[in-house]
Amino acid sequence: MSLTWSAEKCSPSVPSTETEGAWRDLLILGSMALGMDEITTRNIKEWMWRLAFLKQTGVDLSINEGQQIPREAVARWIGLTTNAGSVTRAAWIERRVKGMKFNADWEVHNQREAVAV
After folding, report:
1. β-pair type (81-82, 5-6)
2. Are 39 and 26 in contact (CB under 8 A)?
């Protein structure tokens, strides 16, 4: 299924700049990684928390390496929706930890295979 999005409910006053377009694209793609399918006034804090969690676990969701999206930029895109689906924080964390465990297991497995050669 392809990712679709809509900015119809967003404020028409969002600046039309290259940087703002990059932030928008990051939020659209980030909706999949964050397990959140819309930006509302009620969930901006959760967007920021999940972005911070990803950064703490080594995932850089930014337009320039290390330049996290500011809260004000997320707030400008209130009304943005995607078809990425939405999960609770607990389910999202569980999925992230399972993925990290899988990656660690795979890395150790590959190291063992390299030594055996």
Report:
1. antiparallel
2. no
Give the pLDDT mean for 44-70: 85
**What does the pLDDT look like over 97-110, one tens digit per residue?**
998 888 888 888 88
> Got the DSSP string for the chain?
----EE-TTS-TTS---HHHHHHHHHHHHHHHHHT--B--TTTHHHHHHHHHHHHHTT---BSSTT-BPPHHHHHHTTT-EESS----HHHHHHHHHHHHHHHHHHHHHHHHHHHH-
> CB neighbours (10 Å) of residue 50?
21
Predicted pLDDT of residue 113: 63
